Amino acid sequence: MIKRTEAYDLINLSQIELANFLREVNTIRSEAWGNIITYSRKVFIPLTNMCRDQCRYCTFVQTPDSGKARYMTPDAVLRTALQGQNAGCKEALFSLGERPELRYRLAKDLLRQQGYDNTIDYLHDMAELVLNRTLLVPHINAGALSYQELKRLRPVAGSMGMMIESLTDHLMKKGQAHHGCPDKTPQRRLETLRSAGKLNIPFTTGLLIGIGETWQQRIDSLFAINDLYLEYGHIQEVIIQNFRAKAGTPMADYPEPTLHDMMLTLAAARSILHPDISLQAPPNLEQSHQKYLEAGINDWGGISPVTRDFINPERAWPQISQLAEKCRYLGYELSERLTVYPAYLQHKEKYLEPKIATRLASLSSDKGQAAVQCHIA
Ligand code: SF4
To answer: Which atom of ligand 1 is nearest to the CA of 57?
Structure first.
């Protein structure tokens, strides 16, 4: 594993040194993951698009005065999940804004119409609905959560996730990406990761790069994630996502990270994180799939054959069959995985509720990947 000071210096690598470094991270990836590149076939369930935070790059969120703010009804949740199931999905990704009822009257009213007074209780019951009425396994991505909230949600989800994005206090200041976002403080993000560790929840986290953090702060965030993995063993994957400037947001004119920056960060992550942590970059955010593979990733994350990417709606998912073809051309095999990685399936008593473990067992091959591989988008 690379030392922190060496990682700080990666930003100064010459072209030749970078080529050597990429060869090193490829060796790390190959030894841990072979030539298998995975993805999860999932259906997105954007339970609410309201949020009490106001990240300056976000296009997912809607305020009540937009006329587009809403919660999905139980019928809509079930209909969407079944649509995914019929398209071969194994995972239902619940993705939502954070605690909108603490900010908006409309959110309170819509929750009350469904018989709830807070989003987490509603989320719990909607995940349970999917678990009981479909063959899918919920993955919950609900932002910063307390120990008690994570504990409540654990029985209805195979895995959970929360991007730490950046552990940089500076981003909370006026004019910065996370100003006015009480859920984006580094302390809250780290505490969520730690609580998930104490509860043995297979967990996804990651960085959003290029939102105002320095290279050194990026490296520190990766070391902080790895330290928590070494303490608890629960972080199954880390996503490196590149900021995209989106029209209509306060950061519409902010410079985007370059492909070189993305590759260097991916390679740094591969060399800092324990090799058993899956390293992921989303395939719909950059056409240079080959470059991401060169930088050491082993996973493309969730790809939906039925729902668009609600966080980056302007970026279409690649056809899964085309991605499989591209991987094969580059010497890799695309393999469909489940929301819980094989290493965690092997220790189901520690990491999974019995009902979830049974469901996952019915969906998995003896190697822990998806039993029925579906490579048609
Ligand atoms: S917390 Fe998530 S949904 Fe809320 S504003 Fe930030 S990026 Fe958007």
So the answer is: 7
